[in-house]
Design goal:
By secondary structure, the protein is mainly alpha-helical. It is built from 22 helices and eleven strands. It is about 60% helix and about 5% strand. Helix 6 packs across helix 7.
Length: about 550
């Protein structure tokens, strides 16, 4: 495991779950599968804290377990998933995607499941309905049925899936109570209907009524025990059936959207809509690791186009021909169907998008002339220095300096081909080349380092202004309480003036910096996702 990945995982665990969980999680990442007793001894953490940390990791699907490798009777072992921990970076993107596709209800469903790891459908529906009811300004209440409908749609499109029972994700956890029990949390997000047939089966849930508004804290405290006891006795028909976010399905959606955006910018909106239609028709039937989508005929594509794209069949044929002939090769013809079927070439699309990313990085860091050399080497594969100078039309001294700079940054590699066995320099060809896959891996590690630096900077900024932030939060809480109780405007103004003008300016500057850091994190994560998708696709394609 690369050092930058481990560092970033540790920062994400610390920021979201605290130092103890970060210590246990990082230890599991570095050392692989470990028994509970080994984790306690090697981390020097009290047993009860290690248990709680493992429960948190299991609850959120960041850790899994199985029976020991030494055979029956050996202790249960735990290991952390670095890839899942890194997925925490993408939580805002998952939530925003759910909002885009299914509105505020879908947004809150995904948000609740991400915050809690896994929940039953009835619990999720009630919590989301209550939150939506509290957000309504007209006094209406959200019906449970509306939330159930949004939940069912998310399951139908595979954005949510069931957690398998404990027997599906590993042997039953037995032995002393030192082992945390996690019947539904020790699961991965790559379940399939073949491995777990009921992963997309929505149970019949009995829910009566609608969302309730929260009362004031005083009323809530008085009635909390009675309410809790009543709630615990209620049954809804889905006890023991837990649901989680299907991260893999979200990633496929991100990949498809990236390809669609690239087609729109390279060609036009109609071309991108044709590609969108092809991806939508095959999104459930195409395996996640497939190099191509399902083959589709022109007639099938024509019938599935949105009604507002009123293009004729001959025009569609022209667009398909244009897409097939385009050098980016986003769309190709299926070779085993006589040429009348079309596919989206997922692997080539990701490879071309990754190549464009690498080229833009070189251009931003080293200028347009270095980018010209880099593109030249990507296309010609192997060139001597003199050939680079001639093809790129750059003076010899400048070309030499640029090549050596790119070589020192590991963006370009030098390959020696000796003419004689003695490897004499005078009888050896020195060829410059770019290995796209290894360069993408190197850039991916730099992206991890960048995000880790951004997180550390945000934590530093927050720590430096901790006193001011706490004061601002206290004043906001007082203002909210006064507004609810119907306080006079003079009272509100008096409370607002507790923060001085310089403090307001400092807070505004801090918020601006934090927003900028968050925005940069999201942009870097888009690059991480693209490079990771390309690397995974290349690994699959070469098997």
């Amino acid at each position: 495991m690369a050092a930058q990945e481990v560092r970033l995982c540790g920062l994400l665990l610390q920021e979201h779950f605290g130092e103890v969980v970060e210590k246990v999680g990082t230890h599991l990442i570095r050392n692989g599968a470990q028994s509970l007793r080994t984790v306690v001894n090697e981390t020097g953490t009290p047993l009860d804290l290690v248990k709680k940390s493992l429960c948190v990791l299991l609850q959120h699907g960041l850790c899994t377990y199985s029976s020991g490798r030494k055979g029956p009777g050996s202790p249960v072992e735990y290991w952390a998933s670095c890839e899942r921990i890194l997925g925490i970076l993408r939580y805002p993107r998952y939530i925003y995607t759910a909002k885009t596709l299914y509105g505020d209800t879908g947004e809150l469903i995904v948000e609740e499941l991400l915050q809690r790891g896994h929940m039953t459908m009835s619990s999720t529906v009630k919590t989301v309905a209550d939150r939506l009811t509290n957000n309504m300004e007209d006094g209406r209440s959200m019906e449970y049925g509306e939330v159930v409908s949004a939940f069912s749609k998310l399951v139908e499109t595979h954005f949510l899936q069931r957690c398998p029972p404990a027997s599906e994700c590993g042997p039953p956890v037995s032995g002393p109570p030192a082992t945390p029990a996690a019947p539904a949390s020790a699961t991965t997000s790559s379940l399939t209907p073949e491995s777990f047939p009921e992963c997309y089966k929505v149970p019949h849930v009995t829910l009566n009524g609608r969302g309730k508004r929260r009362r004031s804290s005083e009323e809530g405290d008085d009635q909390a025990p009675a309410k809790k006891a009543k709630t615990d006795q209620e049954t809804h028909g889905d006890e023991g059936i837990y649901w989680q976010v299907n991260f893999q399905r979200f990633h496929l959606h991100f990949r498809d959207q990236t390809i669609i955006s690239a087609v729109a910018s390279k060609l036009d909106q109609t071309s991108s809509e044709i590609v969108r239609t092809m991806l939508r028709m095959s999104e459930v039937t195409t395996p996640p690791s497939a190099v191509f989508t399902q083959a589709l005929s022109a007639n099938e594509i024509f019938r599935s186009l949105p009604l507002n794209y009123s293009i004729s069949r001959p025009i569609l044929d022209q667009y398909l021909t244009l897409l097939v002939d385009d050098p980016m090769e986003f769309v190709g013809k299926s070779g085993d169907s006589g040429g009348g079927m079309y596919v989206v070439n997922l692997h080539k699309a990701l490879a071309n998008l990754a190549r464009a990313t690498l080229e833009s990085v070189v251009q931003e860091r080293f200028g347009s002339r270095s980018a010209r050399i880099f593109r030249l080497l990507l296309r010609k594969r192997h060139l001597e220095q003199k050939q680079v100078e001639d093809f790129a039309m750059i003076p010899a001294k400048e070309a030499k300096d640029m090549l050596y700079t790119l070589l020192s940054e590991n963006l370009v590699q030098l390959q020696e081909i000796p003419k004689t066995p003695d490897h004499a320099p005078s009888r050896t060809f020195y060829l410059y080349t770019v290995k796209q896959l290894s360069t993408a891996r190197m850039l991916l590690q730099r992206c991890y380092k960048t995000v880790a630096n951004l997180i550390e900077r945000r934590l530093f900024e927050t720590k430096e202004n901790k006193r001011l932030l706490e004061k601002s939060q206290r004043i906001e809480a007082i203002l909210a309480s006064l507004q609810v109780s119907g306080a006079e405007p003079d009272q509100l103004t008096e409370v607002e003036e507790m923060i001085t003008a310089p403090e307001k300016q400092q807070l505004e500057s801090l918020r601006h910096h934090i927003n900028k850091i968050d925005s940069t994190e999201n942009q870097v994560d888009e690059t991480i996702f693209l490079l990771k998708s390309y690397i995974n696709s290349t690994t699959t394609a070469t098997r």
